[in-house]
Predict the structure.
Amino acid sequence: MTSEAARTDGAARAADERPMIEIEDLHKRYGELEAVKAARLTVGRGEAQFIIGPSGCGKSTLLRCINLLEEPTGGRLRIGDVSIEFGTGRKTLSTREQAAFRARVGMVFQQFHLFPHMTALQNVMEGPRTVKRLPLAEAQEIAEGLLAKVGLAAKRDVYPRHLSGGQAQRVAIARALAMAPEVVLFDEVTSALDPELVDEVLAVIRQLTEEGMTMIVVTHEMSFAREVASAVSFMDHGAIVEHGSPRAIFEEADNPRLVAFLRRFRR
Amino acid sequence: MGYNWDFGAVTLHPGLWFWGFVVTIGYSIATIAAGLLIGVVCGMALLSRHRILTAPVSGFVQLFRCTPLLIQIIWFYYALPVAVNVSIPAWLAAGLGLTCYMGAFSAEIFRGGIQSIDRGQWQAARAIGMMPRQVMQRIVLPQATRRMLPPFVNQSVLQLKNTSLLSVVAVPDLMYSAQILVSETFRPLEIYTSLGLAYFVILYPMQKLAKRLERRDDI
């Protein structure tokens, strides 16, 4: 990636109607293995883009490329007014620039990854305090507001090990939102949860879509995707092979691999 | 076996015991502290991605982990001054082996502690925009320190016992004091039994502390 390409795009400021995220020809290669192949995705402001596909199809890798936890090996990525080009062989984005980029892109993980030595409130405050260097009172106000929003105001002083999976994941969502990100990425956030805890997390995500948060959601919750997605992409073997409205993907699919994949979710 | 135990010999020179105790504790504290410092620096080097850093440090650590401490003490005391042709004060030369020994084991404890922290913690912290340094300070080190504490205390217990090896280079520690007393009174059984008890009384509480730290479940 080039630091030159990561500059704030002056012309873009006027063009707020551009999509929030544009991914073009994105590649991620590990030696011989091409985990993501020529991914192309556009997410408009306030849209909830869902990605489905079999395990190991590259959907998590794609997500991690989008917030640079993995560095793509080729292609272009733009979020808001920052665009980056990868694989040009030129100087990479500095550590500081990468961190600044990630601060604007929230991410919620399958395994929560809450900070175990911090209370729920401290977990949510950590970003605003350490990264944004907000005053304590302000960070605390933000964190308390977000814990209330995910229904966990009462758990503010509880350590993660005393939270249920569903509660932990809701704290993790609050932690991502505390940075006031332009985009939130959800990486199979209900896959590690007991079935009876899934709904409380989905309810929070649903609320975010209603509030117009731009997001990319990788999930195996097909009925949820059908219900709240703006658009759905189907990934297989590293490539986005189908893209369309929930209706087009779930009801009118004729791609045999997609049909076979979806059949497994019908009981 | 009609041996007549006579513990009177033990209390013959209380001053000797006292100064032996002071020297043992002094060497323990000094070499543990210096060893910890070396351990943290070497541990960080072991975690580095640059082989230029990891290779020599790893060599140092393996060398001191895989040779007997007694040989290290003797070598630093007798061979090092000759090898570098510099006169090193005897008290310092005596402590160098113990220090490096503690440093080597601490380096491994430090490296292991940092590496035991789940990669997910790094990812989550980076995902909210933290710089690597901030991740280390705010997220990884606080968790790793708690995990390192019990092995550090264990290593310190061993270190205090190992100071008894200093007696071979005439450092007047508890062990050396006991040897003097033995040569004077010919009562080795009573004196070494008492010495063993003395080490036990010092170390048992430390071992208890290590156990308690291990049981702490707040992480």
